[in-house]
Model the fold of this input.
Amino acid sequence: MTLRLLSRPSADGAGDTVRVAGASFTRYDPEDTSRVTSSEVRVPTYPKNLAALRAKGEVLLLVKVGRDGTVDDVFAEQVNLRVVGKENQMRQVRNEFARASVSTARSWTFRPPTTGKFKDAESWNVRIPVRYMMGERTPYGTWEAYIPGPRERAPWRTSEAGADAAPDLLTAGGIYMADLDEGPRLLTPLGG
Done:
């Protein structure tokens, strides 16, 4: 389970108000033959022209995997940043992270499902989070900046399944079926 907590100063200035702003119960099992898993997924290289900015962020890729396990298409759905800058700098960082991720993803290969209800599909849509950092890790339990980027829809995407998912909460290193909407979920709406 992954939660996004949002902290804001309280109206009376006496502290902060913290609320759950996002939740994900999605998991990735690389041995699951009923879902798309990785065959060869190479991590994108950090863009050299962003090194001076020490930018951090995540790119949420939507990858269309063909029957042979190759990438039919790839799209950067959202680029979230972990640093604040001027609007034009943040736009440049988002564009560079998206470009590097999409370019690398075009060469990835996957193992299509061989069991289960999705094994005979024509293709599969998977979400893959790609994290960019400059070597440092944020210690567990430490608050960090989160500047969500605009969420866009891939041109080939026709299904609404999973449209309300929180893909920005997926754990880096996983491959998540985008059209699959099963498993645990919250019983009450967020922010209520």
User: Anything to note?
Assistant: The mean pLDDT is 84. Residues 28-177 form a domain with the TolA/TonB C-terminal domain fold (CATH 3.30.2420.10). The helical segments are 87-105.
